[in-house]
Write the structure tokens for this entry.
Amino acid sequence: MRHGKYPLLAAFLLPALGVYATFVISPYAQAFFIAMTDWQGLSSNFNMVGFDNFTYLLKNSYLWNALWHNILLMLLLPVLTIALGLFLASMLNVGNGTGRVRGVRGSSFYKIIFFAPQVLSVAIIGVLWKEIYNPRSGLLNGGLRAIGLDGLAKTWLGDPDFAFWAVLAVMVWANAGFYVVLFGAAMQAIPRDIYEAAALDGTGRWATLWRITLPLVWDSVQVAWVYLAILALDGFALVQVMTRGGPNFSTDVVGQRMYDVAFGEFKFGQGSAIGVIMFFLTLSVTVVALRLTRRERIEFS
Amino acid sequence: MSAHDLSRRALLGTAAAAVAAPALLAGCAVGGDNTPDQAEGQKNTKNPLGVAEDAPLEVVIFNGGFGEDYAKAHEAMFKENFPKATVNHNAVTEIGKTLQPRFIDGTPPDVINNSGAGQIDNGSLVAQGQLADLTDLLNAPSLDVQGKTVRQTLLPGAVETGSFDGKVFILNYAYTVYGIWYSTKLFTEKGWQYPKNWDEHIALCKNIKAAGIAPWTYQGLHPRYMSWPVISTAIKFAGPQVAMDIDNLQPNAWRSEGMKMAADAWYQIVKDKYILEGSPGLDHKQSQTEWCNGKAAFISCGSWLENEQKAVTPAGFNMAVAPTPSLGKGDKLPFEAVRGTAGEPFVVPAKAKNLRGGMEYLRTMLSMKGAKDFTGKVSSLTIVAGSADGASLPFGLDSCVKALKASGDKGFNWVYPTYYRKLERNLVDAACGEFFSGRIGPAEFLDKCQKGADEIAADPAFKKYKRTS
């Protein structure tokens, strides 16, 4: 057996490692290298410029503006998405009142509705919402006008005061469904007798969610937090489809900046430097998020 | 094949990547500098550019609004003259993604129609010395216009858009007219006259609004479309120097007297609410569709508008282009002066294997036969003078031909968007968005544009160009 073991292991591991090294590690390594050059991406000529790209970017107000939007997203997207996901999941999965442990009427139907955005690609979501936000023929303003709220009808993506929030709302909408299912699965794993005991004590839906469900699905929340924080640092695809960072840079994110600098201005050295900055940001956010949410595991016995 | 290519293949094939040093990997994206052997033949009167008769020619076409059939026709014409050559035709939608690696590798094709949203920034290609100087082509005799060089067969201003510091690197083949578009059907029905000066324009706006139609709409999410009428108004008021100063990044070029007058004038349509409500939130397709549906009377655009809107334009809409209204009697250029410019860039890479053949292909395109075929197939004008004569054109394009004729040698243009793409696409764009949605006034608008121009001027990462004519 001993002789046969290593070739077999290698046969399984090496191809996967090779693909990973070629398509993940190697591009990362190259990005670090290119970030130190003034490469312009259309010839093989470049000069090593050390940390010039980084010092330039440090003084670049467009990058700081974009970064600020990512930070806002990082603070708001996880909170809103997780809150909405938890609320909906508990409505669908955990009941009270009559002592029965199940969700509201028609919960399986709602599950499908909430999960639907998850099967759409980001590009489709972007195009779809661009039409919904269309100030003249869009669903949103149309609906507002139909119920007499003309004053609330805005130009949405055309107004720097609202565009960012409009994009944020789409991000929450697009992601909440997945976390409804994730949290729902975690809630299903909570022993029913805990809820039954709580119901006997006359606990309301709200207290059940806050004092029983949330602590028991904390692991899932933690994972969700990290995922969403990383997602918030990106946000590029949706912004690119919906606003390209406009109007007046009010929805710009770091990913969009990187794209513009590299593929619009053909400054690949600088673009890679932005990529490297994003890499470290994402890394540190992950570490911090994992640290902050670390808690004792609760074992069901 | 270079060592870098070999190592990349090896990585993929045998998955030996685990041992690859970062330095080796780093070579991949930026690596591979091939110096090609460029094919060259004997020059003679039939072959003034010295094309090697049997050298294969590779042509890459942007498969967009014009399709690819016109190019196949040009390729067939090329083959008639060089029967021994094989022509390799490719049509793609993402020029940048397809060809960037080949530029880096030093093995680009021989002719590229570098166009579309995914184009490689032409200014960057020039700045990095990747394009061939087309002067030889322009000085060669025309293929079928007797006694004239290629340059002499072109419309005024055709060459300037592709010129950088006196050398011509880009051949912009299609001729585009920029102006203000309106439906002649709507105007006839309502008895409106296209306004020739600013007072008439504002008076008409008032009438249009009273008739329950918004006088204006614009491509709100791409507000730079509105920078075109503003700059045009300024040039007509104060002369072409306005554009020259903007292109050359002169200090305070955006705050010149002409620009101030123009911005003040255009502010009136914002202030008096002559712009269709919600326009700032519409993208180009959405706003142009509102216009086609008769919700707005005027829109600023280039001559591609008719093609772009084909699917949603009602029958008998009869769109036409017109120059911007004159500010007043003191204007330096007449009302008829219109912005005409060459667009749809074709380039020959400096490292093309068949560089001579690439230029000859462009010479084929610029023949009267090639140009007439193009106009017939795609309903667009070319830079070859007189190539649209006698062709039956759609209504909008026909109005472009008439506008150009009326404009004559008074036509004008600016090129800063080619020199410094970011300045128009990002910075002036943002300023126009703020201005035409009414959040800032004319002075702040010009300040914002100037700030953008100053940023570009102060940034050594942008190669600077100067033009004198």
Remarks:
- Confidence is low (pLDDT under 50) at residues 96-100 of chain A.
- Chain A has one domain: 61-292.
- Chain A is about 70% helix and 0% strand.
- Chain A touches chain B through 53 residues (CB under 8 Å).
